[in-house]
Write a structure and sequence with these properties.
Helix content: 55-70%
Low-confidence stretches: none
Distance between the termini: 56 Å
Number of strands: 2
Shape: globular
Largest sheet: 2 strands, antiparallel
Order of helices and strands: HHHHHHHHEEHHHHHHHHHHH
Strand order of the largest sheet: 1-2
Strand content: under 5%
Mean pLDDT: 92
Structural class: mainly alpha
Number of helices: 19
Length: about 375
Amino acid sequence: RPITDVLAGEPGTLPPTMSAAVSRNREWLREITVTWVKAFPGRPDPHETLALVLETLGELTLGRSQDYSAIGEIRRARTLAPNRSAALRHANAEARFLLKSEQVAAVRALADSVLRAHPDPTMEDARQLRGLAALTGRVHLAARLQRKAAPDYTFLTPDWEEINVPLPLTDAALGLFAYAAFGAPLDSLEALEQRVERLIPSYVESGKRDPARQAMLDVPAGLAFPERGRRPMHRPKAGGHYVLEMQWDIARGDTASFWKRYRALRDVQRNVRPGDVSFDATYHTARLLLQAGDTAEATRLLDLSLEALLSLGTSITDQLPEAATLVRGMALRAELADRTKDLGTATRWAQEVLILWSGADQELQPAVAKMRSIVAGQTR
């Protein structure tokens, strides 16, 4: 299948046997990696690999054998790490495992510790730190780390063509990408978008400017849609960016087209676990459902992932949009529960946001204040 068809969610691109095939492969990997760990117990690589396999099986705190769990194995790998960078990679994985097992206080403590210990990270270390900064609401630090982590970033057009641009343009586009994940601050989003538009004619030959513009601006336009609304990059056909297309429909008031796209998307995704869908796509789809007037479906969609954090992908603490929108999704779920007087659910998710974002940057403090209000309202 062409990759563009898969990303666009075209019918037939995800076979019904896919999940069973992946599950079978994971079981094989478990057998192989357990044998590896037993053969080389003093080496970090076998423990790290087994931890990652157990993560995909959902065995974070307790596996089929009490001898092995994802958290236990990654902690063994950390104690055996041969260098600082390897230890950081293991710490990033441990934070992800703790997050998926809903130990958010432990996630916050580990993230704070790791971020303090790396005030001037290398490029590789910045890749491990950016998601932790996003999870704890450090908007500007996350943006700096995103820029430092990917100076050689390769952008992809909707046709899956690679676009390499000079550093000044890459830096501006990555800054825009990072801030868009939070939908804030609006002045930085506006300034960076204008800078990208201004630099494209200087750094990209005329015949490639439109694809380059799409490669650098499509994703930020989709991520910041709730705060900024329709941008020039929104259009009815955007390749694999189905969220961008649905946002186009909602912005134009074409709910009929939106529902047609959404029903087609649900039909394609019925063969995958909700956690296998990137959480930023889930979050923004839920926001669109609210705009379309279906609160029940938006709530259902959020719950499918939030109630099964174990099933979320391995990129949740690596990719800024996923890390940022996960906490934003928790906050949105708390708000929806508060509206329907579902006190237990509202308090649960509001408290998790408060643990993760209580020390967040000023731009996120209105969201934090709203969560405090929800918790205070339930405890009076």
